[in-house]
Amino acid sequence: MLNFVRVTWCTKRPERHDGLRLMIIRDANLSWAAKGLGCFLTTTRDGVRFPNSIWDGTVDALQELVNHGYIYVTNLEEGDE
User: Fold this and answer.
1) How far is CA 72 from the centre of its chain?
2) Between these two residues, 44 and 65, which has the higher pLDDT value?
3) Rounded (10°) angle between helices 18-26 and 32-41
4) Which residue, of 6, 10, 59, 70, has the fewest CB within 10 Å?
């Protein structure tokens, strides 16, 4: 089964275009996983679906983005294995 997460971008960040992606990529405080997930999230309106096998890494990357003020997680649905 797939998990689903929906996020809302913090208002202090630029629009979801090149400016935001560059900000994420250049943020030395973020891991590669958080940078990659953050950049991917800028390309989607609905959120992201991901398999249970990568649950921990994806949730850790999401938490990094939350901790650094990029996003709020508005919905996280855990799928069954």
Assistant:
1) 9
2) 65
3) 170
4) 10
